[in-house]
Sequence to fold (770 residues):
Amino acid sequence: MRDVTVGLQGAVTNAVVSFRHHTVSIVALVSDQIRKGQQVIGFGFNSIGRFAQSGIIRERLKPRVLGVDPADLLFPDGSAFDPEALLRVAMRDEKPGGHGDRAGAVAALELAIWDLNAKLADEPAYVTIGRHFGYQQPTGTAAVYAAGGYYHGDSGMAGLREELAAYVDMGFDAFKIKVGGAPLQHDLERINTALEIAGDSSRLAVDANGRFGASEAATFGQAIAGLGLRWFEEPGDPLDFELLRGVASAYPGALATGENLFSCVDARNLVRYGGMRPGADIFQMDPGLSYGIGEYARMLDVLETYGHDRSQCFPHGGHLINLHVAVGLGLGGCEAYPGVFGPVGGYSRQCEIRDGQVKAPDAPGFGLETKQDLRPMLQQLGEGS
Amino acid sequence: MRDVTVGLQGAVTNAVVSFRHHTVSIVALVSDQIRKGQQVIGFGFNSIGRFAQSGIIRERLKPRVLGVDPADLLFPDGSAFDPEALLRVAMRDEKPGGHGDRAGAVAALELAIWDLNAKLADEPAYVTIGRHFGYQQPTGTAAVYAAGGYYHGDSGMAGLREELAAYVDMGFDAFKIKVGGAPLQHDLERINTALEIAGDSSRLAVDANGRFGASEAATFGQAIAGLGLRWFEEPGDPLDFELLRGVASAYPGALATGENLFSCVDARNLVRYGGMRPGADIFQMDPGLSYGIGEYARMLDVLETYGHDRSQCFPHGGHLINLHVAVGLGLGGCEAYPGVFGPVGGYSRQCEIRDGQVKAPDAPGFGLETKQDLRPMLQQLGEGS
Fold:
């Protein structure tokens, strides 16, 4: 087990944070198996928007996982690694509650196991994931939208128009822009500008990144209520379920949230208390920040128990891992951040984007090696150099 | 700014985890000020029950804090360090939500600032804390109970009896024992055994450490409902507010929880959804695991807004820092884990324990240097050796 910390490209800012100093941990699990003359290595990372977790990975997870009999990490029939067994071992002596950085550290490791299993089976990860959880998705594609719509400073509306037009040229037909980082009137102008490019308001979502207090959120919701936007994302603090319920009771369109909830029990509280409406509102929990795909599947179970549908799920973090999760579990879709958050963010050249759909790579595993900007890092990490 | 990782003494186990591998980060803030011929150094640590946070401290917090103009960390009048300014700087580019390991890392740092401020003012930290938040507590003592009541393996009831009798000899008159790690009937025997020592059932609390599911919690509550115990602690997952509300609706005695909630917004959800009863139930949030004393004071504001009283607050983590917090903020009291969790856990010889009260040391700051087992580590850390 090895890990490396990588930075994120693209110095963008949302209403709350700058991503310039954000980092990601890539974990490599080097197996003793050979496929096509090459040692099989599983890679995973803890999504984007938070930080690398080398401290937790090296000090807590690594000694636990390497300290058990390797057979204890396999399925009973020895056919592959058991992600749930890994989770149990990795979480030994960890108390309940406090689902923060730890959830990302464990996720990077758990995702590497899925990559490893898929490579051992010589198939794309979405096939492995779909089979394991009983969702077969033979198409290999998922709906995708372009997230961005940043504040462009001096270039203002022209910069926003240019940005979204570039997404159209790339094959996107749905978009998400930032709001909450400017006065209301300015944000409304930005929305109108974006609508000129998006055409249909059902193709444009807005994201406040948790910036608003209750009354600001209500005011903003009221101001955009008549526009029929695709969704209004994270109006307030992600754990302020009362605020969300308040917005949900007054705002007629869809709301979206969940990217900052890192466990099944937190997601269940969102469902219990947040006023989320079955068949309408959007859940954006991110496996890479919340203990991996096993915990994410448990979240889906909770959502479905409360009458929601997995088509309402669009995981946060536009990258290959969540593309495979979206395809493999039959989710509503995934996001893309064109041009920023590389090398871990973004898709690879093999991922054709057309008519708002993105195709998962056919390479074994998550196909992270198909990303030109990521491949050299993975190679170095795999070689331990 | 320096930090060191220390282990915990005493290989005890609760219903969920072993503390044998738990660690703590001690942070030292070395000032350029001299008092009584000595350089003034502030020390803080992230309580007990979780893990050291050297990764987050070194990779995220340290560059942010050391990267600003030192004047930006002072109160406007330059009289002392401003813990809120420190918090803002330490949390730069951190997203909302995900209050886990990060909350402990920041807390260790924030607590070191309080220690430093108190030492610069040449007064015990509880005086500094009390003055800052407007609660003057001239007595310098707080109510304390002995937490323990471990599963003693082969020695069983005799071991438990011996353990509690030792606490009586130390000056304790209230106790807490573990439950949930054995079949119900065995736990009831343990409670009866403990009651023989405690005398009055109002002097004995039980702690399930979040072990039970909803029906087990209800069953256990029903089984102990007639005993009039001091409180029933953490029946289920600390974030399962619905479970707690269910227990609260049926169990007539006091419930206690909160030690695994690491932010004000999480604590507010407990108050909103957990069915906690004003004037009765107990809140155990721990400043050392939740961003420090500033965030803890915000939690108190939330509790009081919802009709609860600070006399219901007994912070988790039996150690000198939380003793100063309990005294300085006029809380219900604090806990003690005699004989385990040293060197950071426990009080010092200067802390007289009599009639269920513990006296805070008169030394400047938290008086961590008055702990014989901790002093050498602090000295080394302060010297950077």
